[in-house]
Specification:
Blueprint (H helix, E strand, L loop, with lengths): L3 H4 L6 E5 L3 H13 L3 E5 L2 H7 L7 E5 L25 E5 L5 H4 L4 E4 L4 H11 L2
Parallel strand pairs: 1-2, 1-3, 3-4, 4-5
Length: about 130
């Protein structure tokens, strides 16, 4: 397979990934790392806040249906945290969500997640 991290389209991008299902988190991490991203992976919003302290995050990829804080925290309260101000947030979800909720995110990727679609959404969100 070569050295995807050296040539990947997300090389140099720090992704904060928040997904509560371990299998899905591992799969998304592998997809993103293969595309060249540096991935900080967390099972909850609170864990994400802890592991991203002091790190410049370029984009957040989060499941919406997290507990106790939902993934929408990043586009609601999280926008007011200086370290997340201006950081694009992409949702991944297995649920049908209303357009008003979709509009809160830079992109919404439906599960099952396609690696190319996720990578493309991240690249678009980074401009």
């Amino acid at each position: 397979m070569g050295e995807p991290a050296l040539a990947g389209p997300l090389r140099g991008t720090c992704v904060l990934l928040v997904e509560d299902h371990e299998d899905a988190r591992d799969l998304f991490t592998s997809m993103l790392e293969y595309a060249g991203a540096f991935v900080l992976s967390a099972a909850s919003v609170d864990e994400a806040l802890r592991i991203s302290r002091g790190v410049r995050v370029d984009v957040i990829v989060t499941d919406i249906g997290l507990r106790p804080r939902p993934g929408t925290w990043f586009v609601e309260d999280g926008r007011y945290a200086p370290r997340f101000s201006g950081v694009p947030v992409i949702a991944v979800t297995g649920r049908d969500i209303p357009p008003s909720l979709r509009a809160m995110f830079e992109a919404v990727i439906d599960k099952p997640v396609d690696a190319e679609a996720l990578t493309a959404a991240i690249l678009r969100s980074l401009g």
